[in-house]
């Protein structure tokens, strides 16, 4: 396993569309392992492969309720219900925060690292994380969608507390 460099806002890679994974081989597994390690290092709850410079439809997300990580290869959202608006940040843009509207609940299909397809339902902060990371696969950044950026430190703490109240286990932040 190796730590990968995180691509930052302003770099072209983050604006490109990622290609579908067709081959589920050891190259993919190394990428996933490296993404896991990179998340450990930088403490995020989600990472998309373009953020480590690889334009493949691969994301790793953490369920904020269970703190379990899920690897999603070729994720496709099949259903969106409701709406929520919470503060978001990104490992590719440390220190930048903004409010984004997202669906409250989503359903999706994806494959695991061995190519086995499965279905997943997500709500609350976990749904936000998945939508944020899938956007990365389409070259979209949260700052494109944010209707308000949060500059003030106190305002930011309040916004994070509000978002974390949605999680069953409250210790993680991003
Ligand atoms: Zn991001």
CATH class: Alpha Beta
**How much β-strand is present in the residues?**
25-35%
CATH overall fold name = Peptide Deformylase
Spatial strand order of the main sheet: 1-2-3-6-7
Please tell me the CATH architecture by its name: Alpha-Beta Complex
* Ligand species: zinc ion
SSE order and pairing:
Elements: H1 26-42, E1 46-48, E2 58-62, E3 69-81, E4 84-88, E5 98-102, E6 105-111, E7 117-123, H2 124-137, H3 142-145, E8 148-149, H4 153-164
Antiparallel strand pairs: 1-2, 2-3, 3-6, 4-5, 5-8, 6-7
What is the gist of this entry?
With 174 residues, this protein is of the alpha+beta class. The protein has four helices and eight strands.
What does this structure look like?
By secondary structure, this protein is α+β, with helices and mostly antiparallel strands. It has one domain: Peptide Deformylase (Alpha-Beta Complex). It contains 4 helices and 8 strands; from the N terminus they run αβββββββααβα. The strands form 2 sheets. Strands 1-2-3-6-7 form a 5-stranded antiparallel beta sheet. Strands 4-5-8 form a 3-stranded antiparallel beta sheet. Strand 6 and strand 7 form a beta hairpin. It starts with 25 loop residues before the first helix and ends in a 10-residue tail after the last helix. Zinc ion (ZN) binds next to helix 2.
């Amino acid at each position: 396993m190796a730590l990968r460099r995180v691509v930052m806002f302003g770099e072209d890679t983050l604006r490109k569309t990622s290609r579908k994974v067709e081959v589920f081989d050891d190259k993919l597994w190394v990428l996933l392992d490296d993404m896991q390690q990179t998340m450990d290092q930088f403490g995020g709850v989600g990472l998309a492969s373009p953020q480590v410079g690889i334009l493949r439809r691969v994301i790793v997300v953490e369920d904020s309720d269970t703190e379990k990580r899920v690897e999603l290869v070729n994720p496709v959202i099949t259903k969106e219900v409701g709406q929520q608006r919470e503060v978001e940040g990104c490992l590719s843009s440390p220190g930048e925060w903004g409010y984004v509207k997202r669906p409250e609940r989503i359903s999706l299909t994806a494959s695991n690292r061995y190519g086995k397809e499965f279905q997943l339902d997500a709500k609350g902060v976990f749904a936000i994380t998945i939508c944020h990371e899938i956007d990365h696969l389409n070259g979209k950044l949260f700052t494109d969608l944010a209707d308000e950026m949060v500059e003030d430190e106190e305002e930011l703490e309040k916004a994070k507390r509000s978002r974390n109240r949605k999680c069953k286990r409250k210790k993680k932040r991003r």
